[in-house]
Design a protein that fits this description.
The chain is mainly α and 139 residues long. 78% of the residues lie in helices and 0% in strands. The protein has one domain.
Length: 139
């Protein structure tokens, strides 16, 4: 999958998956804002079906990105759509993650998350890992 055409083809299929998942996450977000209590059963089933595919797509996406970055400037100039597809995939993935995080917080506000599935306190501390490394390095 190191030829630019193969990379582009893979990125297009991944982009399609990400668009499907973004649609589900946006629908979930709208439902959380719209009704009290929200009815999320349909979204949950769609999301459950797409999440394994999302997880499987991450490693090949990273490999495509690395392969694309390893190509020479002349090859990149001949296939500018690949760079655009890499950026589109990354942008869509970030939108999905941010919107899903917002949805998760809305679910918490509505009290719809069981206690055993509550996120770690450290997840809300963005610099937790860097602070941990800093503390470990001072000894």
């Amino acid at each position: 999958m190191y030829h630019p055409r193969e990379i582009a083809e893979h990125l297009r299929s991944t982009l399609s998956l990400y668009r499907s998942l973004l649609t589900v996450v946006e629908s979930e977000s709208a439902e959380l804002r719209r009704s009290e209590p929200p009815d999320l059963k349909g979204n949950a089933e769609s999301k459950k079906g797409l999440l394994p595919r999302l997880v499987e797509s991450l490693d090949p996406l990273a490999k495509c990105r690395s392969a694309w970055q390893a190509t020479g400037p002349a090859e990149r100039a001949r296939h500018p759509e690949v760079g655009d597809l890499v950026r589109q995939n990354q942008d869509l993935l970030m939108k999905i993650l941010l919107l899903d995080r917002e949805n998760e917080q809305a679910l918490l506000r509505h009290g719809l998350v069981p206690a055993r599935e509550l996120p770690s306190v450290n997840r809300q501390r963005p610099h937790f890992v860097s602070d941990l490394y800093r503390r470990q390095g001072t000894r």
